[in-house]
Predict the structure.
Amino acid sequence: MVALFRFLRILTAALRYRLDALLPHHKLPWGLSVLLKLCALLPNNTQSRGERLRHFFEDLGPVFIKFGQLLSTRPDLIPPDIIEELDHLQDNVAPFDETQSRQLIEQALGSSVEELFADFETTPLASASVAQVHAATLKDGKAVVVKVIRPGIEHTIEKDIALLMVLARLVQRFALDGQRLRPVEVVEEYEHTIFDELNLQREAANASQLRRNFANSPLLYVPEVHWDYTRSNVMVMERIYGVPVTDMDALAEQDTNMKLLAERGVEIFFQQVFDHNFFHADMHPGNIFVSHEHPQSPQYIAVDMAIVGSLTQADQYYMARNLLAIFRRDYRLVAELHVQSGWVPEDTPIHDFEAAIRTVCEPIFEKPLKEISFGQIVITLFQTARRFNMEVQPQLVLLQKTLLNIEGLGRQLYPDLDLWQTAHPFLERWIKDRFHPRNLWQQMKRYGPELMEQAPQMPHKIAGALDQLQQLGDLAPQLQQAAEMINEQKAGASKTRRRLLITTLAIAAAAITALPATGIALNEVPLHSWALVAIGGWAWFNR
Ligand SMILES: Nc1ncnc2c1ncn2[C@@H]1O[C@H](COP(=O)(O)OP(=O)(O)O)[C@@H](O)[C@H]1O
Ligand SMILES: [Mg+2]
């Protein structure tokens, strides 16, 4: 009943913003088509399609708003005019009230807020669709923030995702570009990330890992998690006091080295993706701050580690080589790498693929390097690869999205940012380092224990394997023999059949000629006897 009510609400919102105009009438079954024709009687909406979609998402609440935000990070799927509008989606959700926050914290941690904290600010620092953040002070005087999951949000998400899925199926089936947009896949991916965001224990674990990866780094600081006060719906972490990265005035006021800041953003991205293989994948400006300390050597501070990504070792390697190959304009190699990595099928016509990549990349390289969007190149490349049946790979999508974020942020801070200048030496070094004896030694050390564990059985296993090989070798003449036997048998079988046929015919002839001697006329033999003879003969013949 509730779901029906919600569905009707979605339908009215869709009609209010005349989203029916985005559906191609000729593709629809006649019933729907007639309904849509009736929609034409509704008041016209003169806003652009992007604006209409944005209002539609805003009308339907947090789960839809977040979904719209997710779509705005998919330039590989969504046209630029719509992305521009969806970029403005804000989830201004009313905070949930203080007593609820307290109740949730007390239930989760098993003590009263007064027992847990020396001070707890009831007005939240921030309130979003999934969680709300309060400032507090621990008994030992440490300043912390307490993140609490919004009560009942899980149920709302479940319901809304189910409805989104219905819409996705409709779009997939009926929208102009429905197949290519892969709406069902996009909603499934969204479901995955939004449910991950509900588990603060998971977010805290990500934060701990990222903090460890950047321990003592001048580039990035990650606040510490207070594990004693962390559960799946409540997380307590060190409070940070940085400048929000979008506050350009404050950054200028503290005389921040903006060029270095922008470059460090790029460096952090590459370090995370290639050195640590663990990247913060929600790098939107609201989650990034800049430390007040030593602004000439500026350090970022990151919060909100709900979404992280990592690549397989193979994807890491192919990604690095691909980026280098693109910037050398070695399109043949780019095409080959896509096949080697398994991103496109093995039977892809390399020559055509190479030509397609050249066609989309050459115009981009017309511009001076600092104007080239690195993220755009990766997106264009994947779009091209998709035409050659590249599967959507969530981790690569996450990477592409994060790269776009970092690049956008960097250019906002320092418009002349030349991303390639930072990326190029990094990637060259990384590729070289992979085969450096030190790294090979590291790998040995890492996988050494397993090798050692198996070492005592090694001679035995090797001997076994050799034995098997030997046996295979020995088998060769036997296999040959078997093949010959099969051939012989085939020839033999047809000979036997011929003999059987002659015998059957002879017996039948003998029986028929002997009939007069038994006193039975041929026409007196009952039909079922003939049938039995026929079946018997046939069975014998087919023995
Ligand atoms: N450790 C922290 N110290 C200070 N402020 C924080 C901290 N963590 C989060 N915040 C503030 O709370 C806001 C929301 O927190 P965040 O973890 O990003 O939640 P959400 O998942 O809802 O985006 C942040 O944008 C930031 O302003
Ligand atoms: Mg956030």
User: Anything to note?
Assistant: The longest helix spans residues 458-518. The radius of gyration is 35 Å. Residues 125-126, 128, 130-131, 133, 145, 147, 223, 237-240, 286-287, 303-304, 306 surround adenosine-5'-diphosphate (ligand 1) (CB under 6 Å). The chain has a mean pLDDT of 86.
